């Protein structure tokens, strides 16, 4: 199952309004200005334990300032993964879990599975054992009755109580009447198998510190400090824990010398490293075969990575992507998460990384999500925003109102996002998709927003609209970065209730990545909200005349007009389209160049057609 949404009720700055975070099945990005509450949201999610009860989630330090601890709660909605939908264990039903300081209540698909599988086995046990099979008294008997009530409840499921009770139950089976032991043990084992299948459906929420890393080299003093400090920012502690090696033995291996004891410990560490780390890492990271190794020399432990395609290299000599994979894997394995359904949380993971490293980290998230995991991360950076493949729909915007409450918006283009917060809140996505703040915010709210494929289209249309004396208070031009990003911009405009129209070049990219995609996503309801630079018929579109006879904004301007300007000003034919547009329009605005009547007429027809649609 995956988490579809979480209502965070009265946790720090999050109150009872606009407090639901909708998660995508794979990756969800959270954006918001500084101090808006992004870290509070990640922290709140990290406190949720679907298999137990986390007391740290409900304290005076975590409750909202206007309520008591008892008013805090989390409401989690889970949906079946695609490959689970035909599984009768969850019966195609959503599940809802409500956790508050006093209770844990799960209903829906989880409860249905429990009642129709575990519940039958429990009834069989109760019929054999009776009310007090372990001859308990006083408080022990009261606790046992509480556990039994949780077991037989068909209204909701209390997973932490059942988990705790089953372990106690199992430990006392050897105290029952020997004539019943075989039957009871058989039924209990069947119950335990069904119960484990149920809890394995539930994802584990795990906060991942992207800065917690395994270093290349640890000298003796570094290793001793890392292995004895619980707040260490190194993964050496996790490595030693996984290898089931004592800190004393690992430190002994680092010390100089080649006596038999040191050699035996070193060989043991290398053998376990290969068995425990390398074997499973092949399934976690399948881009290439990777082997982590450690050598001991001159009072140092030296970690290297070897692939089947090259020599051993220090960790720092490998790509950021591989190191993040390895670090996350070690951290997850140390917390017994490998092979489980995990929701990984990252708070500002790219904050100290250069641009290429941020892009590589985003690829790492996508690869990690392919294994059935969910990723939730916060960011300020446009390089951590992926607008391809419907990426804009995976972004959640948050803001803090004047009363200090954090509001979680269901999308990045929610019309309820306050205008004063839009510029700071949406900076990363605006920069990522190429929108222009000056054109987007404020005046454009009441204008017709004309979204163009690129900056040259923007320059030509803006200049010619002014030259032809169109009312510039009623229209705004927004440059995009290619036809595919126009879809993202129009989605935002639609969410904000703005009038808009998308203008695509009549060429392969404009039609295939623009108009056709626009039609698929928005449907016939918005057939008047996009057009091409050339007025065409449906037959022309069906016959794909755009392949052999494309028509772009430069064709609206006309080739003869461009040639005349270039020749007059001795401009090279090799300059970029955007620079040529800038030079030409500067000349028009400065009245040092006059465009011809054909060009004016073409733009008048195009602008009139846009506004008429």
How would you portray this structure in words?
Helix 3 runs antiparallel to helix 6, helix 9 packs across helix 10 and helix 11 crosses helix 12. The protein is 44% helix and 16% strand. It contains 24 helices and 19 strands. About 1% of the residues have low confidence. With 613 residues, it is α/β, with parallel strands linked by helices. Helix 12 links the parallel strand 12 and strand 13. The strands form four sheets. Strands 7-12-13-3-14-15 form a six-stranded mixed beta sheet, with helices on both faces. It starts with a strand and ends with a helix.
Topology:
Blueprint: E1 2-9, E2 20-22, E3 27-31, H1 38-46, E4 73-79, E5 95-99, E6 104-108, H2 109-116, H3 118-129, H4 138-152, H5 159-172, H6 181-201, E7 204-207, E8 217-219, H7 220-228, H8 236-242, H9 247-254, H10 260-284, E9 290-297, E10 300-307, E11 313-314, H11 320-334, E12 342-346, H12 355-369, E13 374-379, E14 395-400, E15 406-408, H13 419-425, H14 427-433, H15 437-440, E16 448-452, H16 455-467, E17 475-479, H17 483-495, E18 499-504, H18 508-522, E19 530-532, H19 538-542, H20 545-548, H21 553-557, H22 559-568, H23 577-589, H24 597-612
Parallel strand pairs: 3-13, 3-14, 7-12, 12-13, 16-17, 16-18, 18-19
Antiparallel strand pairs: 1-2, 1-4, 4-5, 5-6, 8-10, 9-10, 10-11, 14-15
């Amino acid at each position: 199952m995956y988490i579809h949404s979480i209502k965070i009720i009265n946790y720090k700055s999050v109150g009872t309004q606009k407090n639901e975070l909708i998660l995508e099945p794979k990756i969800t990005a959270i954006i918001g200005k500084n101090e808006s509450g992004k870290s509070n949201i990640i922290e709140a999610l990290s406190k949720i334990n679907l298999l137990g009860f986390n007391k740290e989630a409900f304290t005076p330090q975590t409750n909202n300032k206007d309520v008591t601890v008892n008013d805090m709660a989390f409401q989690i909605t889970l949906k079946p993964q695609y490959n689970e939908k035909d599984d009768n264990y969850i019966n195609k039903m959503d599940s809802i879990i409500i956790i508050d300081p006093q209770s844990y209540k799960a209903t829906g698909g989880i409860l249905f599975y429990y009642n129709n599988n575990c519940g039958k086995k429990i009834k069989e046990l109760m019929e054999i054992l009776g009310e007090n099979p372990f001859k308990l008294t006083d408080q022990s008997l009261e606790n046992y009755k509480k556990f039994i009530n949780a077991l037989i409840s068909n209204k909701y499921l209390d997973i932490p109580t059942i988990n705790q009770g089953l372990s106690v139950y199992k430990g006392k089976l050897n105290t029952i009447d020997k004539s019943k032991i075989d039957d009871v043990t058989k039924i209990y084992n069947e119950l335990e198998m069904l119960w484990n299948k149920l809890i394995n459906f539930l994802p584990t929420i795990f906060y991942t510190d992207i800065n917690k890393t395994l270093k290349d080299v640890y000298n003796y003093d570094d290793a001793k400090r890392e292995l004895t400090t619980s707040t260490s920012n190194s993964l050496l502690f996790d490595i030693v824990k996984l290898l089931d090696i004592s800190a004393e033995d690992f430190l002994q291996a680092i010390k100089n010398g080649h006596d038999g004891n040191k050699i035996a410990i070193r060989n043991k560490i290398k053998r376990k490293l290969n068995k425990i780390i390398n074997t499973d890492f092949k399934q976690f990271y399948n881009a290439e075969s990777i082997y982590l190794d450690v050598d001991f020399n001159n009072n140092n432990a030296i970690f290297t990575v070897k692939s089947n395609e090259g020599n051993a290299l220090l960790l720092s000599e490998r790509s950021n992507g591989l190191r993040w994979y390895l670090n996350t894997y070690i951290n997850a394995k140390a917390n017994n998460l490998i092979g489980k359904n995990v929701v990984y949380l990252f708070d500002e993971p790219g904050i100290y990384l250069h641009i290429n490293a941020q892009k590589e980290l985003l690829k790492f998230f996508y690869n990690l999500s392919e294994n059935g995991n969910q990723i939730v991360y916060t960011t300020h950076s446009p390089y951590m925003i992926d607008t391809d493949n419907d990426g804009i729909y995976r972004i959640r915007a948050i803001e803090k109102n004047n009363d200090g409450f954090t509001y979680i918006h269901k999308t990045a283009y929610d019309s309820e996002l306050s205008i004063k917060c839009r510029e700071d809140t949406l900076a990363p996505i605006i920069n990522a998709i190429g929108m222009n703040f000056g054109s987007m915010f404020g005046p454009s709210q009441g204008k017709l927003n004309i979204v163009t494929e690129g900056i040259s289209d923007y320059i030509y249309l803006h200049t010619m609209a002014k030259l032809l004396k169109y009312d510039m208070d009623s229209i705004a031009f927004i440059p995009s970065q290619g036809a595919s990003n126009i879809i993202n911009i129009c989605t935002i405009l639609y969410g904000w209730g703005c009038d808009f129209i998308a203008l695509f070049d009549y060429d392969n990219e404009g039609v295939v990545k623009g108009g056709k995609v626009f039609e698929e996503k928005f449907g016939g309801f918005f057939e008047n909200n996009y057009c091409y630079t050339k007025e065409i018929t449906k037959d022309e579109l069906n016959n794909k005349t755009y392949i052999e006879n494309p028509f772009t904004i430069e064709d609206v301007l006309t080739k003869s007009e461009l040639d005349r300007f270039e020749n007059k000003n001795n401009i090279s034919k090799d300059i970029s389209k955007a620079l040529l547009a800038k030079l030409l329009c500067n000349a028009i605005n400065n009245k040092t160049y006059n465009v011809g009547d054909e060009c004016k007429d073409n733009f008048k027809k195009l602008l009139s057609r846009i506004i008429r649609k």
